[in-house]
Every structure is written in structure tokens, then in C-alpha cells.
């Protein structure tokens, strides 16, 4: 009995001292038992009408019309582990969100890197072109684990890889991708 308790204590101390390294392999966001942040993707399409659009949760892919404007919203929130939360303190709060498009990292300095129970970071695609097609990944990390969610975007008029040269930041927690003509 004492050995089992000592082993459990050692495991918990190991988890608490673990620091996330972005090079590590991240788990899929649906693996909620991993102690990593719970990551969700939402897509809002912006129309020319004056009404507000509610974000829509997409699970795998979304088809977007050429010349549309959309905003991808990634939320990361603290998981609900089976162990008592007090063992972890604030170590389970998401501290970072990173964006990847077709496996290329986008250095988004305006995504807040302060730990919080819930973090949100957005990526706006303006005047969508076929080169905007691809896999969009949002990775979130806390001090214990890294998790991710992904979304495939298809533009109705064709498929090409995005051009990273057209990136410019706008506003707090937003990034705008301006793709070539």
C-alpha cells in the first residue's frame, strides 16, 4: 500500500514539474483525459448584411466560396481531470495558442500568452482565394500537455497551398491573411 501511494505521488510530482515544449507531439483535442487544454474551432462567415453571424462549430471541414471573408476562432479552456484540480493549481490553464496552416507555423505575437481558464485566438481570412485551401491547426498548451484541433478549408473554385508572404497582424488576438491576387 505504501509503495502504491509513493508511486502515485511520484507520478503526480512528475506531471506538475513537466514543462510543455512545442516540439513535442500534441494529442488530439478530443482526448480530454490527457490533462491538456480542451480546444475547439469555430468559423464565422462575414456577409455584407447588417445582421450578426453566430460562429458555427465545424468538426472536420468547411467549404467556403471564393471572395468570402471568414474568421476562425480557436478557444482553449482548462480541462476537467479525474484527479482533484488542487493537485495541479493553475498548471492546467491554457497558456499558449499557436496556429499552423498546412504544417507551417504562423508566428502570431498578438495571441495572448498569459495563462487563463479560457483563451481565444482568431485567424481572419479576407477575400478568400483558392490558395487559402488546406489544413488549419490550432494547438494549445498548458504546463502539463499540448492538444490541438484541425479544420480543412476548401474554396469552391479550386485548391492550392496558402502563400505565407501575405500575413499582416490586425487588432488584438487577430491575424489577417492577405493572399495574392
Automatic annotation (TrEMBL):
Keywords: Signal. It comes from the Eukaryota. The keyword Signal applies. Gene3D superfamilies: Immunoglobulins. Residues 50-154 form the Ig-like domain. Residues 1-23 form the signal peptide. The keyword Glycoprotein does not apply. This is Ig-like domain-containing protein.
Amino acid at each position: 500500500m505504501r509503495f502504491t501511494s509513493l508511486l502515485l505521488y511520484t507520478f503526480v510530482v512528475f506531471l506538475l514539474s513537466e514543462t510543455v515544449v512545442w516540439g513535442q507531439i500534441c494529442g488530439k483535442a478530443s482526448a480530454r483525459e490527457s490533462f491538456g487544454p480542451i480546444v475547439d474551432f469555430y468559423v464565422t462567415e462575414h456577409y455584407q448584411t447588417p445582421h450578426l453571424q453566430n460562429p458555427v462549430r465545424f468538426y472536420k471541414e468547411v467549404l467556403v466560396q471564393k471572395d468570402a471573408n471568414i474568421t476562425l476562432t480557436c478557444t482553449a479552456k482548462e480541462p476537467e481531470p479525474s484527479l482533484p484540480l488542487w493537485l495541479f493549481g493553475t498548471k492546467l490553464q491554457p497558456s499558449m495558442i499557436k496556429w499552423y496552416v498546412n504544417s507551417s507555423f504562423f508566428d502570431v505575437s498578438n495571441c495572448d500568452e498569459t495563462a487563463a481558464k479560457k483563451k481565444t485566438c482568431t485567424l481572419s481570412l479576407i477575400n478568400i482565394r483558392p490558395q487559402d485551401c488546406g489544413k488549419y491547426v490550432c494547438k494549445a498548451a498548458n504546463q502539463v500537455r499540448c492538444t490541438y484541433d484541425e479544420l480543412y478549408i476548401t474554396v469552391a473554385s479550386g485548391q492550392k497551398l496558402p502563400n505565407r508572404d501575405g500575413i499582416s497582424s490586425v487588432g488584438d488576438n487577430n491575424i489577417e491573411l492577405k493572399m495574392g491576387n
